[in-house]
Design brief:
Layout (H helix, E strand, L loop, with lengths): L1 E2 L2 E2 L5 H15 L3 H14 L4 H13 L3 H13 L8 H12 L3 H11 L20 E6 L6 E9 L2 E4 L14 E4 L6 E3 L5 E12 L5 E8 L2 H13 L3 E4 H4 L5 H4 L2 E3 L36 E7 L2 H14 L4 E8 L2
Parallel strand pairs: 3-8, 7-11
Antiparallel strand pairs: 1-2, 3-4, 4-5, 5-6, 6-8, 7-8, 9-12, 9-13, 10-12
């Protein structure tokens, strides 16, 4: 096969050696050294799409989106197949990071995805209806998996209330990688991929608060969550929604908190008997209910106390709150 007058051929031994060494350096986090080697590989085999794909991948790791887009476009120009190549997926991620919406649309379509004609006021594609997914925030640090809504193949809007250690807030949009690392299953049957965050794409102005609740029953806790949702914000009972997992378990196929009855997760590495982020036991019929709950709330400062006071006023004998603190 000829591309631009050049005969397509297998990469040379020198190209393979340089590339293998570069990926070893990438694994060690030595991106600058790897960049020099992958640039050399591209000089050795400029007609090979893999040369530019590898450079685009490296620039994605470095969050150098201009360079990632440029290398990605050179890679797709040399492809010998029409659709489905991961080269196009990387182009889509870099274009989304740069808000280059015409290129993002072209990339997703070239990959083989159905992209509706709907556009937002800024020109970004909307209406892809990709459903829910989970995203691992700060995957190289104190990682946390939260739930969100997929806006497109590279972005998720965070709908859980992240713990303050993640540095993320409810309502933020994060750019994520294309290959899932893990899966979350539900009792109802569906399973959802877990994607790794690449970087924050759009911040949220809504702060995160932590508060200690006295909720006599689950219905009292549920009432606060409904009250916050009705106001356009969120409340989440961290005492039951948070569990600590080792990396291996987090990146595997794991059950979520859906379903009935007591569910004690054998992969949960938290300390039993402690409420809050160091304890997890799925609530259900017959399970132990602890009235003191650690709750995260995502709401403006001028509203959060009013929400809590209104919640207590609806049932003062079964509800109380204390120790409200803004944490993120």
């Amino acid at each position: 096969m000829k591309i631009f007058g050049k005969v397509r051929h297998r990469p040379s031994a020198s190209w393979r050696q340089v590339t293998d060494r570069a990926f070893t350096l990438i694994g060690d986090g030595r991106y600058e050294d790897a960049s020099a080697l992958l640039t050399r590989a591209a000089d050795l085999e400029p007609w090979l799409s893999e040369s530019w794909f590898n450079l685009a991948l490296l620039h994605k790791f470095r969050h150098d989106w201009e360079q990632a887009r440029a290398a990605g476009l050179r890679a797709v120009a040399l492809l010998d197949r029409d659709a489905g190549a991961p080269d196009w997926w990387n182009v889509g991620i870099s274009a989304t990071a740069l808000q280059d919406w015409p290129l993002a649309r072209r990339a997703w379509q070239a990959y083989g995805l159905d992209v509706p004609d709907k556009l937002s006021a800024t020109g970004e594609p909307t209406g892809m209806e990709l459903g829910s997914a989970a995203v691992r925030l700060s995957p190289e640090g104190e990682a946390e998996v939260v739930w969100g809504r997929r806006l497109d193949p590279a972005r998720i809007e965070v709908l859980s209330i992240p713990l303050p250690s993640s540095g993320r807030r409810w309502g933020e949009v994060v750019l994520h990688d294309g290959v899932p690392h893990g899966e979350r299953t539900t009792a109802a049957g569906p399973s959802y991929p877990v994607f790794d965050e690449i970087e924050l794409w759009a911040p949220s102005p809504v702060p995160t608060w932590v508060v200690l609740l006295e909720a006599a029953a689950e219905s009292d806790r549920d009432a606060l969550e409904r009250l916050a949702a009705d106001a356009g914000f969120a409340a989440e009972d961290w005492s039951s929604s948070v569990r600590l997992l080792c990396r291996s378990c987090s990146e595997s196929r794991m059950p979520s908190d859906e379903g009935e009855g007591v569910h004690v997760d054998p992969h949960d590495h938290s300390e039993p008997g402690h409420p809050g982020p160091l304890r997890h036991r799925t609530a259900g019929s017959g399970s132990l209910w602890v009235p003191e709950r650690e709750c995260g709330i995502a709401a403006p400062g001028g509203l959060v106390r009013g929400l809590l006071d209104g919640w207590v006023a609806d049932s003062p004998h079964t509800r109380a709150w204390r120790d409200l603190e803004e944490v993120c």
